[in-house]
Write a structure and sequence with these properties.
- The protein is α/β, with parallel strands linked by helices.
- Helix 1 packs across helix 3, helix 2 packs across helix 3 and helix 3 runs parallel beside helix 5.
- The protein is built from 9 helices and 6 strands; from the N terminus they run E-H-H-H-H-E-H-E-H-E-H-E-H-E-H.
- The protein has a 6-stranded parallel β-sheet.
- The longest helix is centred in the first third of the chain and has 19 residues.
- The protein starts with a strand and ends with a helix.
- It folds into 2 domains: 140 residues, Rossmann fold (3-Layer(aba) Sandwich), CATH 3.40.50; 61 residues.
């Protein structure tokens, strides 16, 4: 069978920079100073980001960030352009839909409820030992849905998405430009096609 494996934050939902805002609010509330730019870490597991930003206070930071994020999502989460249309069209064409996200289960389900997109399978950061760029979550999705990797498509907005899809041997990979900084030459060298929005992928499917 063939499938499309989507990233969630920044790909199907405008939530990548809601994560950024939540991290910055949590850092400020706890008085933690970090020289690392949050946007360069987006796409990784929450715990991993917290450890980089807060060292030994990472659990405290993660707890506050998760609470702030859930508050922000309720007001701010929206679908990206053509997200629902692309999912609907892909289903119509016989693709299974999986979402593999670094977000935890509570955060991911809150976003999906807000944007009203419901995949055949959701794999969250708390279900895997190794988050992106490790392909563990993508391979888990392929196995659970019995998908042929070479007939399947990976769609994301960060370098860690592309790395995970490439390592899982997906047949086609798209990187959707977002506010998350990426090295486009590096992404192209990994075989990904760069698009400005999901609408371009929808046109290709059509």
């Amino acid at each position: 069978m063939k499938g499309i494996i989507f990233d969630l934050d920044g790909t199907l939902a405008n939530t990548a920079f809601i994560h950024k805002e939540a991290w910055e609010i949590a850092l400020a509330r706890l008085g933690i100073k970090s020289e690392v730019k949050v946007e360069t870490l987006l796409g990784r597991k929450t715990a991993e980001i917290a450890k980089i930003l807060a060292n030994e206070r990472w659990e405290e930071l993660m707890e506050v960030k998760n609470k702030v994020y859930l508050e922000l999502v309720k007001e701010k989460a929206k679908r990206t352009n053509c997200a629902k249309e692309l999912v609907d069209k892909a289903r119509e064409m016989g693709y299974k839909i999986a979402i593999v996200t670094s977000s935890n289960s509570i955060s991911a389900r809150e976003v999906l409820n807000a944007i009203q997109i419901f995949p055949d399978l959701l794999i969250t950061g708390d279900e895997v030992k190794n988050g992106k760029p490790d392909p563990e979550g993508v391979i888990l999705a392929l196995n659970r849905l019995k998908l042929n990797a070479k007939l399947s498509i990976g769609i994301g907005d960060t370098e860690v998405d592309v790395l995970a899809y490439k390592s899982a041997n997906l047949g086609k990979i798209y990187l959707v430009r977002s506010e998350v900084p990426v090295n486009e030459d590096k992404v192209k060298n990994m075989g990904a096609k760069i698009v400005n929005s999901l609408c371009e992928i929808l046109e290709e499917l059509n």
